[in-house]
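Researcher: Good morning. I'm working through a list of sequences from a screen, and I'd like to move beyond sequence-only analysis. For each chain I'm collecting a predicted structure so we can compare shapes side by side. This is the next one on the list. No need for commentary yet; just the structure.
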Amino acid sequence: MAQALAEAGAEAIAILDLKQDLGEEAASRLSYDAKIPVKFYRADVRDASVIAQTIENVVSELGSVDILINSAGIV
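Model: Good morning. Structure tokens for this chain:
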């Protein structure tokens, strides 16, 4: 999804996930390939306060959120 957004002209992308190493790698690779800011934020979607704080950080660091894609799964 993030790559498709970059290819469609996104100016910046935030990736949220629990897996720090995979998230940082994906953000770094996409930022390099797409030549846009891509930041990783470690966040647990089960914790509303963490998500609220993360969204505040995203807005502060990357600007307003125009598109939000939720593809989290809880097992």
